[in-house]
Amino acid sequence: MAEDRRDSGLKRRSSRFMGRWWPIPVALGGSLGLQKVFFESRYDVSGHAAEHLSSATAPFLAVALVVILLWATPPARRQPDLLLACGAWLIAAGLVLVGNVRVVDALIRAGMGRTATDQLVMTPDIEAAHGWANLAPWLGVTTALILITVLWRRRYVSTPVAIGAGAASLLVPPWILPGAGVIVSVFARVLPRRRRSLADPRR
Questions:
Q1: How far is CA 68 from CA 30, 73, 128, 200, in A?
Q2: Which of 21, 101, 140, 202 has a Cα-to-Cα distance from 177 of 20 to 30 A?
Q3: How many other CB atoms sit within 10 Å of the CB of residue 95?
Q4: What is the pLDDT of residue 197?
């Protein structure tokens, strides 16, 4: 009987957890699935091209983070400044994808889809493609800083969190994720929601 009660309690807790937190795994899992199935599977590259292909995946995580941010911050869905900041960051992430895909395509056309970076031979086509791929991530950093600032002005994140998020955006290489500080901001929004949920089991 005691074991049955423990199992029943565990099932109830699991059900409550999924009922409250399902948007997070759905957003992250859906983003990763789309990235793997509909984007990365189209290319068979390695070396320098693979590095650019990895950088091109920025919009997939960016969309997941914005979805989680808006889920954790319901009033933000009705605030134009925050929605515009989110949209600007997503557009910048999309430009990162476009710029890096241009490089990948240029490398494939030049027969260097599997060439290592230190063995790369620059051609005018490849060099031109790199120009936009190098610029777009910094647009992502700029728009991420704007988003973090709007979150701070709206008092959705504290000053220390905003400073940490801004520092992360500037310190984490933008070709890994343009505006990595958005992750810090999203975590800061999700954490209070979790604490409220633990304080009130009915939530």
A1: 12, 8, 36, 21
A2: 21
A3: 21
A4: 47
Instruction: Specify whether the CB–CB gap between 166 and 188 falls below 8 A.
Output: no
Burial of 124 (0-12, 13-18, 19+ CB in 10 A): exposed
Please write the tens of the pLDDT for every residue from 12-23.
554 454 447 888
Report the run of H or E that residue 8 belongs to, with start and end.
Answer: helix 2-21
Place of tokens 């925050």: 82
pLDDT band of 5, cuts 50, 70, 90? low
Give Cβ neighbours of residue 149 (< 8 Å, ≥ 6 apart).
162
Give the end-to-end CA distance of the chain in Å, rounded to a whole number: 28
Task: Answer for the pair 156, 123: CB distance below 8 angstroms, yes or no.
Answer: no
Listed residue (193, 23, 55, 194) closest to 135, CA to CA: 55
The domain segmentation of the chain, as residue ranges, is: 2-199
**Other CB atoms within 10 A of residue 4 CB:** 8
